[in-house]
């Protein structure tokens, strides 16, 4: 779709829905024609979902997963944004700390699971800790790079108008770096949502990730496994869409090339 | 017609108070163990309310000179005094105007123009913003963001942002360089109109000979790097200038000759 041909109002909704419907049909007939009795059909999944809702378990699990993500992520924001601003602002500090950060960063958060369990035992704290780790590095790095990439012209203009260093940081450097920080925040929320599922499979006894592994282990309820998977996807989509909306804000839109 | 004059006598003939005085400015950049002479012993004076152009080929160091004058970089040797005070850093009494890229993209036109007015009361701030929005002709665009504006309009926002803090000097670094030639001509006219209304002292860096002769009271012609002052040309034509008058052409051609450019393409 080029920008020259203006799409009609319904188009952005209808085509994706059609794709989803086709996929459902494909899924349904694949299950039917292959004669599998392990993998559930869409209808079976729908019934499994209804069971879960009736039992009240579903809302509790969704709440648990979201709560862990919220805590871990918020903690990462609270530490990562100021930390990144600091590292971007003082290159000398970055030079000392950055090599360690860049070495820790590529370690998959999943690899931290055993460490998390040793430190916090099985439960909420371990998951929150893992989500914190997973979202902290992208947030920190994007904030640092955001500050570093602020054109020197903006800083000079700020200094020229007599801004104190703290005002320069708040009124020039922070808003100038914000679009890049938001990219990091968005990536981090995606990773956090990936990691919460993995963390709950091992280090937790509730949540959507736990639902996946528990439904399989206790009675091979694959209808529930797939239902949980679909829910995880759906919630991830909603989280991402929330972030995309912020990119449309006029005071931020300048930093995003394709958003218009 | 072109006269090669020492800066002091040029000021004496105009009877202007000295605003800025640069003495023996030398600038050497060290990079990877290689030192490059950029400015070689530049001394100049600018009178109060004067419009001076620094003219020279690209990369000659004129922007560096302007940055030294503005206090963004300190020279290797020599010093700059403004109103008798030594320049040690940037100051809001003298505002640097970058190319249009210097406007803050996260602020509206109003936000940009009011950026330097953080110590005023809200009412005064409103009033000042409205005044400068009008001065640069951006009424109706107060709430627009820079990405919604054309290059020329962004440049107006920058000039207005600089003027709003009521500085006594403006430093302009090839401010119209990124604009198309028609917009550039319009902007030159606008700048002169504003200069005549507000009488700020202006130091304007350009590599465009016509621009320099059209705008300034004096053109300081600089050599290629390391930059020295080659000559200072008085442009004693009143505004508005007729750019086809014999006097304009002879001054312009004199500078072409001085730089060593042929008149034929």
Q: How many domains of chain A, as an integer?
A: 1
End-to-end distance of chain B, in Å?
Answer: 24 Å
> Which structural class fits the helix and strand makeup of chain A?
mainly alpha
Biggest interchain interface, per-side counts: A-B, 22 and 22 residues
Number of DSSP strands of chain B?
Answer: 10
The number of strands of chain A is 0
C-alpha termini separation of chain A: 14 Å
Query: If you consult CATH, what is the topology of chain A?
Result: MetI-like fold
- What is the annotated CATH architecture of chain A? Orthogonal Bundle
Output the number of helix runs of chain A. Answer: 11
Low-confidence stretches of chain B: 1-10
| Dominant shape of chain A | globular
Secondary-structure element pattern of chain A, one letter each: HHHHHHHHHHH
Uncertain ranges of chain A: none
How large is the radius of gyration of chain A?
Answer: 22 Å
Considering DSSP H and I runs of 4 or more, what fraction of the residues of chain B is helical? 25-40%
- Largest sheet entry of chain A: none
Structure explained in plain terms:
By secondary structure, chain A is mainly alpha-helical. Chain A has a single domain, classed as MetI-like (MetI-like fold, Orthogonal Bundle), CATH 1.10.3720.10. Helices cover 79% and strands 0% of the residues of chain A. Chain A contains 11 helices and no strands. Chain A is globular and about 75 Å long. The mean pLDDT of chain A is 88. With 265 residues, chain B is α/β, with parallel strands linked by helices. Chain B is 34% helix and 25% strand. A 6-stranded mixed sheet of chain B has the order 6-7-8-3-9-10, sandwiched between helices. Chain B has a 4-stranded antiparallel sheet with strand order 2-1-4-5. In chain B, strand 4 and strand 5 form a beta hairpin. In chain B, helix 7 packs across helix 8. The longest helix of chain B has 18 residues. Chain B is globular and about 50 Å long. The two termini of chain B are 24 Å apart. The N terminus of chain B is likely disordered. The chains are: A mainly alpha (260), B alpha/beta (265). Chains A and B meet through helix 7, helix 8 and helix 11 of A and loops of B.
């Amino acid at each position: 779709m080029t920008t020259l041909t203006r799409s009609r109002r319904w188009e952005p909704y209808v085509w994706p829905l059609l794709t989803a419907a086709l996929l459902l049909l494909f899924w349904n007939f694949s299950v039917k024609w292959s004669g599998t009795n392990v993998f559930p059909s869409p209808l079976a999944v729908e019934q499994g979902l209804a069971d879960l809702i009736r039992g009240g378990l579903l809302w509790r699990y969704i709440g648990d997963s979201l709560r862990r993500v919220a805590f871990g992520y918020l903690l990462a924001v609270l530490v990562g944004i100021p930390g990144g601003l600091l590292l971007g602002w003082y290159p000398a500090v970055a030079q000392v700390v950055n090599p360690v950060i860049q070495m820790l960063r590529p370690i998959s958060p999943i690899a931290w699971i055993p460490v998390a369990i040793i430190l916090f035992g099985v439960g909420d704290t371990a998951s929150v800790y893992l989500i914190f780790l997973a979202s902290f590095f992208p947030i920190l790095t994007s904030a640092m790079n955001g500050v570093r990439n602020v054109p020197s012209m903006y800083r000079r203009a700020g200094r020229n108008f007599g801004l104190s260093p703290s005002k320069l940081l708040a009124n020039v450097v922070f808003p100038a770096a914000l679009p890049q920080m938001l990219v990091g925040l968005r990536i981090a929320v995606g990773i956090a949502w990936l990691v919460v599922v993995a963390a709950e499979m091992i280090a937790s006894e509730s949540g959507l990730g736990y639902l996946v592994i528990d439904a399989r282990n206790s009675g091979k309820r694959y209808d529930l496994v797939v239902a949980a998977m679909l829910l995880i996807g759906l919630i991830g989509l909603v989280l991402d869409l929330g972030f995309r909306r912020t990119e449309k804000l006029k005071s931020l839109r300048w930093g995003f090339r394709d958003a218009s | 017609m072109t006269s090669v004059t020492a800066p002091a006598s040029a000021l004496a003939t105009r009877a202007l108070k000295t605003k800025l005085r640069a003495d023996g400015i030398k600038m050497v950049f060290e990079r990877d163990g290689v030192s490059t002479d950029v400015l070689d012993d530049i001394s100049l004076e600018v009178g109060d309310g004067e419009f001076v152009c620094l003219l020279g080929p690209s990369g000659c160091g004129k922007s560096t000179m302007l940055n030294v004058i503005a206090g963004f970089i300190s020279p290797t040797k020599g010093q700059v005094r403004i109103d008798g005070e030594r320049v040690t850093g940037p100051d809001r009494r003298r505002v640097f105007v970058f190319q249009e890229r210097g406007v803050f993209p996260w602020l509206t036109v109003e936000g940009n123009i009011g950026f330097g007015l953080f110590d005023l009361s809200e009412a005064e701030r409103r009033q000042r913003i409205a005044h400068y929005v009008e001065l640069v002709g951006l009424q109706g665009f107060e709430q627009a963001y820079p990405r919604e504006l054309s290059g020329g309009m962004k440049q107006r926002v920058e000039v207005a942002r600089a003027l709003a803090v009521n500085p006594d000097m403006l430093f302009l670094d090839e401010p119209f360089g990124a604009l198309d030639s028609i917009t550039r001509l319009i902007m030159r006219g606008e700048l002169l109109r504003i200069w005549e209304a507000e009488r700020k002292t202006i130091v304007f860096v350009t590599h465009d000979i016509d621009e320099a002769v059209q705008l300034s009271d004096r053109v300081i012609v600089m050599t290629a790097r390391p930059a020295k002052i080659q000559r200072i040309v008085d442009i004693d034509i009143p505004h508005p200038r007729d750019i086809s008058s014999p006097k304009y052409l002879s001054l312009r051609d004199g500078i072409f000759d001085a730089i060593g450019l042929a008149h034929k393409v």
